[in-house]
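Bench notes, afternoon.
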Amino acid sequence: MLDRIDRKLLNLLQQDCTLSLQALADEVNLTSTPCWKRLKRLEDDGYIRNKVALLDAEKLGLALTAFVLIKTQCHSSEWYQTFVNQVSEMPEVMAFYRMAGEYDYLMRVQVTDMKSFDRFYKRLVNGVPGLSDVTSSFSMEEIKFTTCLPIPE
């Protein structure tokens, strides 16, 4: 179970994972060793999955964000595994979800422009048999983006 200090550490790391151990310890009023032990436990228990740098897509020339909704009539475990493997190897796919509701899958795709999206789309629909409906919507403006989870009290 997470206590107040664990939650504060997780929030601090979500804001800036480059904070030094001493800076984190100071923020939660601990010395370095107990703070390190808490961080180690949070990692070992799977609360901290990874530490990454978030890059600016536009500065990297990846200005087009597409949301791709997919329907399929195929639901066998073999088809599912093939589909997951195929999509997982597509670097343009930033997020991939199995959904409840009208569509079966949702992807967030990041590409340079419409031509590159068209190439992605063709690879997707030609590489995976059984997709019955593939619908795409394109972002005109990113209003909010965060990787920080709202940690429950």
